[in-house]
Hints:
Distance between the termini: 37 Å
Radius of gyration: 19 Å
Structural class: alpha/beta
Shape: globular
Order of helices and strands: HEEEHHEHEHHEEE
Number of strands: 8
Strand order of the largest sheet: 3-4-5-6
Strand content: 15-25%
Amino acid sequence: EDELSRSSHSNPGKSLVNGIKTNPASNSPKSSLPVPMGPPVYVDLAYIPNHCSGKNTDPEFFKRVRASYYVVSGNDAANGEPSRAVLDALLEGKAQWGENLQVTLIPTHDTEVTREWYQQTHEKQQELNIMVLASSSTVVMQDESFPACKIEF
Length: 153
């Protein structure tokens, strides 16, 4: 904290992002600064960002964030959610792992995109040890019902 404080005072207009000094004007998501490579991160569960839109998730995400479970949300075909490109990126990224760890993909909605992707890439999913959970479970509370998914560890 002392080093961070000193760097802020000695370099006005500069800040630290992930331990790297940056200029706040360049902290936009489309910044041209390269992201330093590092070892992959292993987690139990990862939520695919931005409702599984292709804006922020690519094969590099799946190469770096290695999860036992990926949750895919998104139920808005007009906005490209979920994105077929992101689902394909999972296959591409997982193929680079070099180890055949079990991965479970958990869609929160049953969409045409997800169903098509599942059917068209089923052999590749099996080869890469990817299981897709499909749930037709429904929760009924008072006068309302909605789809449900249960995750157990």
